[in-house]
Amino acid sequence: MSNSRTNSLTAGYSGKFGKQFVLRQRFGKMRMGPLPELSSKEPTANQIKVKTRFTAAAEYAKRAMTDPVYRAEYNERGAGMRTGYNVAIADFFKAPIVTEIDVSKYRGHAGDPIRVIAVDDFRVKNVTVSIRDENNTELEFGECIQLENGNAWIYTVASEHLPTEGQQVKAIAYDIPENKGEMLSPVE
């Protein structure tokens, strides 16, 4: 695709030019490229799935751009290289990851801390913790508080649950588009 900084012939134009090429303006630059080619083949099930997911991502990005806080955050992350809209679409496709659950200070008492490390390509919005017994029955559930370093979250146990063999802690991290990543850790 060719670039043009100042061209009085195409200044202010965008879109298809006959059946020859397409003009686009991005970040103050005029770009000219070939016409997109549409396939005459029936889409496969996987192509339909991808298209449906991309449509959902575009709808999410449109909604995010109407929220002044998210719009500012996404635009800031784009910083001249990508639009905030494109950053929001990328965020939609990437779920957060829980990389660590630290239960070393958990002894089954109210007030014990459980530390969770969760990362995302954009931002982790919130993290929840669930303490489960050996039968996977939930004993306690609650929200974590984000620590200053950004990736670390802390959960303070609310009630007594003396650790038993098979007891586990489940952490779920959510990002802005509500994607989730989770991890299960045994209580030692």
Write up this protein.
The chain is an alpha+beta fold. It has two domains: 45-93, no CATH class; 97-186, Immunoglobulin-like. The protein is built from three helices and twelve strands. It has helices spanning 45-66, 68-78, 84-93; strands at 2-4, 15-17, 21-26, 29-34, 97-102, 113-119, 124-132, 138-143, 145-146, 152-156, 168-175, 180-186. Strand 9 and strand 10 form a beta hairpin. Helix 1 crosses helix 3 (84-93) and helix 2 packs across helix 3. The longest helix has 22 residues, at 45-66. The radius of gyration is 24 Å and the shape is elongated. The protein starts with a strand and ends with a strand.
Concise description?
The chain has about 190 residues and is α+β, with helices and mostly antiparallel strands. The chain contains three helices and twelve strands.
Task: Please render the helix and strand layout as text.
Elements: E1 2-4, E2 15-17, E3 21-26, E4 29-34, H1 45-66, H2 68-78, H3 84-93, E5 97-102, E6 113-119, E7 124-132, E8 138-143, E9 145-146, E10 152-156, E11 168-175, E12 180-186
Helix pairs in contact: 1-3, 2-3
Radius of gyration (CA) equals 24 Å
The major pleated sheet works out as:
4 strands, antiparallel
Unreliable stretches = none
Listing every helix as H and every strand as E from the N terminus to the C terminus, the arrangement reads: EEEEHHHEEEEEEEE
Mean pLDDT: 87
> How many H/I helical runs?
3
Question: Which descriptors apply to this entry?
Answer:
188 residues, alpha+beta, Immunoglobulin-like, 2 domains, four-stranded antiparallel β-sheet, 3 helices, elongated
